[in-house]
Amino acid sequence: MELPESALAGLQSLAHPARLPHKTFQLLLEAAFHNLLHPQADGTALDHAELGSLDPTLLKQSYAAITTCILEAGKQNADKSTLSTLLEECRFGSERIDTFCTEYQKNKGKVEALLGSIGRYPSHITDVSWRLEYHIRNNHLHKVNQPSYLLTLKAENGEARSAEDVTFSCSMEQLQDLLGKLKDAAKSMEKASQM
Amino acid sequence: MEEVDRILLNSLRQSGADIAEDVESVRQLTTELIVECVVRCLRILNPALGNGVSHLLPPGMSARFRIGMCLAQACQELGYQGEIGYQTFLYSNEPEIRRLLMFLVEKLPRDSADTADQPAEKSVLLQRLIATKIKQQLASAWLPPALRTTSLLNTQNSCLMNKFHSQALSLLSPSAPPLSPSQQSLLFTELWEYWEQHQPPVTAQAWDQACVAASVLERATADLSAVQEWEAEWNSQGLVSRLSPEEYKARKRQRLQSRIQEYLKQSSQRSEVRAGLAGTPAPDLTDPRPDHRCLRAKHSRFIHTEKFTFTQVSEDLSLHFSHQFPPPTPQDVQAEQQKEVRELEKQLKSLGEQIQDVRTAMETQTLTVNQVSEETRDRELSAEEKQQLLHIRKRALDLLPDAEGNLSKLQAVMEASAQRLVSLAGQWEKHRVPLIAEHRRLKQQLDSHELESSRRLMEIKEFHEKIKTSAEEAKRKENVHRQLVLELEHLSRGVGRAAYTQRILEIVSNISKQKEEITKILSDTKELQKEINSLTGKLDRTFAVTDELLFKDAKRDEAVRKAYKYLAALHENCSQLIETIEDTGTILREVRDLEELIDLETGKKTLINLEKILEDHRAIRQENAGLAGRLREA
């Protein structure tokens, strides 16, 4: 795992037990995780009595470093050993490494969820309803006599928006083609999982 | 035997032979399978030997025979001691095949399993991870949104998604911006004040809370890649230029600035020309709007090419121009302004025309001034020459009255000066030679220094390469180590091994039990033997005594004589009986031996093999006949 120099410098300044007592370190760490996972726009991120006694530049720098470190670790799916080697390189003591790692493990799933929520998904098809209709004749032809299917795919996208449904009609061959394609897709997924 | 067979078959399967799962003993192997197993083993043991032979048995009899011979020879070359020939493969019997397969499997390299799985690369690892995730997600059932747990919320697509949107963050940078010292201190204190008092924490800087993570990540990546890019550039170009990093940066900045200036000049000229063609006034350089677009284009190109090392310049530029964007104004103000602008433009146009006229006039004037000044310079030169000539002639005229004396005086002066010249030349030479030598020496030194420095440069480059490769190597090895540790954790801890050891211990205990029994039986037999011996001795003695007594009495008594006769007959019969019993025992033993022999022979499948041989013989005959027929036809 690689971090930019500014983040490394911030982490190194965190490692000094003299400059930063362990209690404050823990507070800062918790604040970083909390602000990342429960963002608040009002700028009260670091308004804690004990944090206020620190040098504001140092505090901001360390805070930015911790945030970067957490996000990068989540992005690279870093395990405990990788994280602890990184922190050791920044001259962290074993106690602080343990604190960091446990806090990270505790929140790893949420960090992953946060990172996973960047981007977009296509809608998920959750249900399908269909209807068979039969063309007997139309304006131009006296006898048509062809069946066709009316399909409605129910889709969902995110918890907030109720997704719109996809409706279309198709002939039997087209439906078979669609079915074959879907089967192919399912098979491909299975093949990908077999690797 | 079953245990041995299972181990054998397992290792054969590992060597690549296609043995069905239901085959459990060597007896079940068909000729085809035997040939395949042997060929696979040979291919692993000795590729040169094994690759020449197909692992599929051909239908033709003669080809089969040839393959058998080949395999037998190959096995002998590998050091197989037992009897082997084509018949071993084609007309197999169980013990021989088992012996051969055991020999081959023992020879197989033990660590083949280790060499087989090469350390997987990072991408392979990632793919594997993806595959396991997909498998997990495929295994979990779909649930309606209301029932989903938090872990399912992410995988089953019901969490709220945010588009990737990032924003520039202001972070406290550890290195001060490169400026002149006075400027730097001023700016630095101001920056410091900002950092200390006004800068919001990172997570509060983004306008939308959703893009905090994206912004932080992008910032980190940008910083990292800037460092990497600079290192790559420094290693490829900076080192060769033999400048210190600061000098190199300064030079590059200069180059870039000159390029920007040139571009600005060009574009302004172009727009002037364009304006001239269209009959509109030339846009003033202070109005950034027309130029802004091309500058933007240039700016973005710079960003692409010199992206990270010199963002400073382009940032300054963009800052500069963004300042001068006119703020949006309401409509009526705009109309008024437009009118004003039109008037001003008209004015500007007339002024421009005037300026143009004055400029052309000025150009012609400067041209004439230049011409005139040149002429005066020429004239001055010629006047000077003429004055010098005049001076010389005046001296000659002065000297003319006393011509002889003056001539001789002049000659003396000339000689003296010539001598002085010679001596001076000598002195010059004296100074010159060591100086030239010194010069040469210095030059050589310089050359050697240059050589040395280029050599050093090469070395430095090599070291850089080495550092990079070793760092990569270290990283790779670390990855491999981690992966192997993971695999080790995943590995089911040697079930087979434990089972085997247990089995071996059982067998050993069995053997010791059997040994005990055998010794017991042996001691029993010995006791029996002893008993028999003592009984025989007792019998002999008793018989002798009885015999003597009866013999003594037999001369006197007829009945006793009869008894004596009976006794002799009894003794003889008894000894015969014993002999018969002993004979029966030996015969029984022989029978058992023979039975064992029969078993062995039946195990060799002699009859079946004989039938097979007969069949094959017939096939060969047919083949031969066919070949002969074809020969005759040909």
Automatic annotation (TrEMBL), chain A:
UniProt xrefs under InterPro entries: COMM, COMMD3
Xref: PROSITE patterns: COMM
Any Pfam family: COMM_HN
Residue span, COMM domain: 124-193
GO BP term, pick one: sodium ion transport
Alphabetized PANTHER family for the sequence: COMM DOMAIN-CONTAINING PROTEIN 3
Protein family per UniProt: Belongs to the COMM domain-containing protein 3 family.
Protein name listed in UniProt: COMM domain-containing protein 3
Organism in which the protein naturally occurs: Callorhinchus milii (Ghost shark)
TrEMBL record, chain B:
GO molecular function, one term: cullin family protein binding
Location of region: Disordered: 267-291
Coiled coil residues, start to end: 334-361
CCDC22 N-terminal domain location: 1-109
InterPro entries xrefs: CCDC22, CCDC22_CC, CCDC22_N
Keyword Hydrolase: no
Keyword Coiled coil set for record: yes
Single biological process term from Gene Ontology: positive regulation of ubiquitin-dependent protein catabolic process
Pfam families membership: CCDC22_CC, CCDC22_N
CCDC22 coiled-coil domain ranges (all copies): 128-604
Keyword entries, A-Z: Coiled coil
PANTHER family for this protein: COILED-COIL DOMAIN-CONTAINING PROTEIN 22, JM1 PROTEIN
Similarity comment: family membership: Belongs to the CCDC22 family.
Identification of the protein by name: Coiled-coil domain-containing protein 22
Organism from which the protein derives: Callorhinchus milii
